[in-house]
DNA sequence: CCGCTGTGCTACGATTTTCGTAGCAGAGCG
DNA sequence: CGCTCTGCTACGAAAATCGTAGCACAGCGG
């Protein structure tokens, strides 16, 4: 179950989620994620790049690979569940 | 994005996955997950119980709630992606 | 009553991960 | 040369996790 090793780390899923559109820079991505420390973000990005789901953009910025976009789609049901769950936990 | 807070912690997703069938005891669950330290497992179980996705069984053991089972279903696409990905990363 | 076994779970020092802040090297531009 | 952006590193402090040991309780056989 290597996926839990890749995606079970802090910020990993969040990074993929925040890369769902655009090609944010390192700093912009960091801000979108809620300002994790740059060292961790860099480590995650390195892991995700090595896993082939994230890639750098010529001239700066990051984006999902084709594989990454498939992973993002696989995260959609989880997100749908999360929204229903959030409403149930703290309605309003 | 509270779901990343709940499921972005180590072992959280794994615990849910390993509860997909049966009602394993604390120790059995721990073994299935690959022996995380009991303190972390207990913390995760407490968080998941508070979130309402895991519950204890009368007479011992743990299982998913109805909500937990829905969450498990939301994890299936992620798992399907993971299997394809694992084959691509290390074929054979 | 005693011991054996299994249950959930706690304690605690060691290790690993993450945090938070500061700053570096390089590129582009005036 | 200086300003601003880029990705990224350094480093001490804090938090999370590890690994091992063991506690309290319950059931059951003798």
List the helices and strands and how they pair.
2 copies of one chain form a homodimer.
Chain A: H1 2-7, H2 12-18, H3 26-33, H4 38-50, E1 54-56, E2 62-64, H5 66-89
Antiparallel strand pairs in A: 1-2
Chain A binds a DNA duplex (30 and 30 nucleotides) through helix 4.
What would you note in describing this structure?
Two copies of one chain form a homodimer. Chain A is mainly alpha-helical and 92 residues long. Chain A has a single domain, classed as Arc Repressor Mutant, subunit A (Orthogonal Bundle). In chain A, 63% of the residues lie in helices and 7% in strands. In chain A, strands 1-2 form a two-stranded antiparallel sheet. In chain A, a hairpin with a 5-residue loop joins strand 1 (54-56) and strand 2 (62-64). Chain A starts with a helix and ends with a helix. The A-B interface holds A 1-4, 7-14, 17, 51-52, 67, 70-71, 73-82, 85-86, 88-89 and B 1-4, 7-14, 17, 51-52, 67, 70-71, 73-82, 85-86, 88-89. Chain A binds a DNA duplex (30 and 30 nucleotides) through residues 9-11, 25-27, 35-43, 45, 56, 59-61.
What would the keywords be for this entry?
homodimer, 92 residues, mainly alpha, Arc Repressor Mutant, subunit A, two-stranded antiparallel ribbon, 5 helices, 63% helix, 7% strand, DNA-binding
CATH architecture classification of chain A: Orthogonal Bundle
Uncertain parts of chain A = none
**What average pLDDT do the residues of chain A reach?**
93
Integer-rounded radius of gyration of chain A: 14 Å
The largest sheet of chain A is:
2 strands, antiparallel
Question: What class would the helix/strand composition of chain A place it in?
Answer: mainly alpha
Q: What is the number of helical segments of chain A per DSSP (H or I, 4+ residues)?
A: 5
Which protein chains are joined by the largest interface, and how many residues does each one contribute? A-B, 32 and 32 residues
CATH superfamily of chain A: Winged helix-like DNA-binding domain superfamily/Winged helix DNA-binding domain
Distance between the termini of chain A: 37 Å
- The succession of helices and strands of chain A, N to C, reads HHHHEEH
Strand content of chain A: 5-15%
The count of strands of chain A amounts to 2
Please estimate the helix content of chain A: 55-70%
Class of chain A, according to the CATH hierarchy? Mainly Alpha
Oligomer: homodimer
Strand order of the largest sheet of chain A: 1-2
- According to CATH, what is the topology of chain A? Arc Repressor Mutant, subunit A
Tally of distinct domains of chain A? 1
């Amino acid at each position: 179950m290597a996926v839990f090793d890749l995606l079970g780390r802090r910020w990993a899923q969040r990074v993929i989620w925040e890369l769902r559109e655009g090609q944010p820079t390192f700093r912009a991505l960091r801000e979108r994620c809620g300002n994790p420390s740059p060292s961790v973000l860099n480590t995650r990005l390195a892991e995700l790049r090595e896993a082939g789901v994230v890639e750098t953009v010529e001239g700066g910025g990051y984006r999902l690979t084709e594989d990454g976009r498939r992973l993002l789609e696989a995260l959609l049901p989880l997100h749908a569940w999360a929204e229903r769950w959030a409403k149930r936990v703290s309605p309003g």
